[in-house]
Amino acid sequence: MTGLVVVGASLAGLRAVEGARRAGFDGPITLIGAEEHLPYDRPPLSKAHLLDETVPSVQFRTEAQLAEMGVRLVLSTPATALDTDAREVVAGRRFPYDALVIATGARARTLTGTEQYAGVHVLRTLDDANDLRRALDAGPRHVVVVGAGFIGSEVASAARARGLPVTVVEAARHPLTRSLGPELGAACSLLHERHGTRLLSGVGVAGLEGAGSVEKVVLTDGTVLEADLVVVGIGASPAVEWLEGSGVTLGDGVLCDETLASSVSRVYAAGDVARWVNPLFGRPMRLEHWTSAAEQGALAAANALNPGRVRPYSTVPYFWSDWYGSRIQFVGVPGADEHRVVAGSADDGELVALYREGDRLVGALLVDQPSSTMKYRGLIARRTSWADALAFARDRHGSWAS
Ligand code: FAD
User: Fold this and answer.
1) What are the chain's domains?
2) Using a 6 Å cutoff on CB, does residue 106 contact ligand 1?
């Protein structure tokens, strides 16, 4: 038996190998990763890791623990091709598999034309986070963050916590439109202003200027910002280049069915790289969320190893983000038909907003209301009607409800 091969040694990949063992698989397991690091946790990289405090450990497991699980680790070795006829992963040499889990995640997008400047950072990996932390330690005079998404906003928040002056530049008229919808994205971004971050929306970056190191950011409306540290947070793209020509169908990630199966037999995908059909919403989605990456990893491995007993992955998407000491949480999908603030307001700094599609509750945004988050997640999972969700909100939030 050639066993299970998992490509991508991060959250989804680690959960895949753990899930395989938990499901009783006792054959060989190989975990192949491009980075030199053991699997580590990314959310702290844009939060505690950037503060002017002791750096927390982000490593999930030690090498000894992985060895005890019988996992053969192949690090610092990017897979460069997949031969689906021979059932082999090419990563320096060839690794044969019976079952394969693709967990190569996503890579930070960069701003084209900025590569030649020192002082320009992205944030995806532990190495990126260490570089950025060092740059913040050096006490830059002007920090410019490009992109007011979750990672850009967390970086801005960490820089402000160090007392640094920060400007965030966002190309969309309303920040976080794709994740939260325009009005609620804008409501969250009020947090920036309240904490002294300057937010410029509806304007793009035309280019950078500087002699070696970045000195200025030139915007599309002609504004010129002083900048000695630039952080580009403009999203991530699925890491699928190595699969081109393999026969695995691609399209904004690895295209999968409800069970996380790719178009090729015994090849599954999990985490940020997987675009699968979520049965709860009846539509394909690719999430870049910690919780789904972990859950998909475990299920993809179990399904890949038990072709006769595959199970679908159905979930209410969930993510959180920490800005300026506030916890923002979102469950579900930002439905297009309506959203309603059912308690609090952006001005209060605490709010609950619900999202409707047809007559069904499909999403909820919560700012500093952590005790209600999983309640709404449960309502969405049970396909609760809009009317019942509003009644629930009235009961739950009482006089606070708007
Ligand atoms: P990744 O974590 O991207 O790991 C993929 C791994 O595969 C990487 O180690 C990569 O080097 C490797 N790889 C890529 N190509 C190859 C190849 N060809 N061969 C071998 N290996 C390869 N989510 C939340 O819900 N809440 C948060 O607050 C939050 N904060 C975040 C903060 C940061 C800074 C980042 C970057 C992400 C954050 N996320 C958050 C998202 C969450 O961390 C991801 O959803 C999760 O890491 C996805 O795990 P993954 O294993 O699918 O992919």
Assistant:
1) 4-107+236-309 (3.50.50.60), 110-232 (3.50.50.60), 325-400 (3.30.390.30)
2) yes
